[in-house]
Amino acid sequence: MDRTLEVGDDWEDMIELHLFQAKDVVVILSENSLKSKWVLHEGSMAHALKKNIYPLAIMDVKAEELPIWAQKIQYQRFVGIDYRQALNELIGRLTPVNQLKKLLVKQCDIFSQTNVLPSLEFLKNIEPAIKESPIQNREIASLMLLAALKNELHVDFWVNLALQNDVDIYSLLQDRLDEEEFRFRKSAIQALQLVITADQGNILLRFLQDPYPQVRKAAILGLWNIPDLRPQLLNALTYECHIPAGIFRMGMEELPVIEEYSRSLSEFDKQGFAEYPSHEVYTDDYFIDKFPITNQDYLRFLLDTKPKAIKTEEFSSSITGKELLSVTNLDWDDAYEYARWAGKNLPTEAEWEKAARGTEAYLFPWGNRFDASKAHISKNKKTSLKPVNAFSPQGDSVYGVADMVGNVWEWVSDWYQDDYYRSAAQFINPQGPSEGKQKVLRGGSFREAEYNCNAYRRIGRSPAQKSDEIGFRCSFLVQE
Fold it and tell me: Which of the pair, 22 or 355, is modelled with greater confidence?
């Protein structure tokens, strides 16, 4: 009789509760227990809950007398052998270390037969046990590392475990770098960063062309962390541009009058003289997307996250022949969600403007005189978007960043405040106001004239606004 039971307790409910909380279940096999419906019921329930069951035979039993669940589980005999020896064997099986070894060996067998790696749930459950009782097995350590990379789980921990077991991580991962799953490629690159030397780093260069931004970012950071390879990294960049740390001049002392229009400033132009005053800003090293995010880029995001299958399907069919156009009709939150998925950020105003005008405070990415052949604006008399690379390289900034003016306005991360330049006290990596009602848009669009399509113009719009002339690009810091 279970002495913890109280009057009114339901036996089945209590049995189920205790079995659910238990890690291991020991079932005594004897003549009497095999006649007890409660013993058989507890054993069946433990089996259904997939607990570790350890049958102990304290009397001779016949296989055909055992319940179905017990017929396929090896039991420990306590009959006709040394009792202490049998007890030690039982304790050995119940020790976490031994359970751990048993589980890991089983996973190795599964992998060798099916090439299926252990699941994320298995890794999370097994990790505390490995920390408590480190394993000494090269094959298991290799398998656990591959599984951790597949599931994006604590790369550093599993790399160290592999190193402790003398796993040749470089060779192991070199054979896996062409995995179709982009998360595995990203994690493999992050693991390689921890072990490769400068003469091996070239293996990461090819990932600068990967279609997935997460993989490219991992490769960029891996190469950046090897100073000898930075020149090769910067020469091989295709989809991102490096903006070096340092000071640049942001804003304008006074808004220039565009000669062709000979126009004075309107209230819309001023927005409270939002670009005044000119001031020095320092930014750390960062990388920014060379082009705005395209329809093709955004489709990869939808296919991976599948927010709504119908939305993804409709979007996919609507962009045929328009893959290289900037994705539009997204509000600020949509842009933010993409950036977060990509492992990047929406650029700050300061990051956007520095990438657009360089340290010479150019009015336009290419210099101080407007050139209609270098940007897609209303002067071109086109009523639709151009591909993001249509004006590259002739319209690129000094850092090689394309399509910074015209084509589409671009969301940035900052809240809009028209007097922010006059009220902010901190101009080292400025993040903008802490709150607001509007987000900042930069760069102008194909419907705007050149007085709005330049490197300094800033306007505010509701973060809920969507338009066919609003897009975005992403950035990330070297040291996050």
Answer: 355
Query: Rounded to an integer, what distance in angstroms lies between the CA atom of residue 346 and that of residue 477?
Result: 11
What mean pLDDT do residues 394-420 have?
Answer: 96
Q: How is domain 242-477 classified at the architecture level of CATH? A: Alpha-Beta Complex (3.90)
Which tokens in the block code for residue 456? 């300094």
- Full 3-state SS string of the chain: CCCCCCCCCCHHHHHHHHHHHCCEEEEEECCCHHHCHHHHHHHHHHHHCCCEEEEEECCCCCHHHCCHHHHCCCCEECCCCCHHHHHHHHHHHHCHHHHHHHHHHHHHHHHHHHCCCCCHHHHHHHHHHHHHCCCCCHHHHHHHHHHHHHCCCCHHHHHHHHHHCCCCHHHHHHCCCCCCCHHHHHHHHHHHHCCCCHHHHHHHHHHHHCCCHHHHHHHHHHHHCCHHHHHHHHHHCCCEEEECCEEEEECCCCCCCCCCCCCCCCHHHHCCCCCCCCEEEEECCEEEECCCCEHHHHHHHHHHHCCCHHHHHHHHHHCCCCCCEECCCCCHHHHHHHHHHCCCECCCHHHHHHHHHHHHCCCECCECCCCHHHCECHHHCCCCCCECCCCCCCCCCCCCCCCCCECCEEEEEEECCCCHHHHCCCCECCCCCCCCCCEEEECCCCCCCCCCCCCCCEEEECCCCCCCCEEECCEEECCC
Predicted structure pTM score: 0.77
What is 11-94's CATH topology?
A: Rossmann fold (3.40.50)
Q: pLDDT, tens digit, for every residue of 424-453?
A: 767 999 999 999 999 999 999 999 988 889
Domain ranges in the chain?
11-94, 242-477
32-75: pLDDT as tens digits:
888 888 888 888 888 888 888 888 888 888 877 888 888 888 77
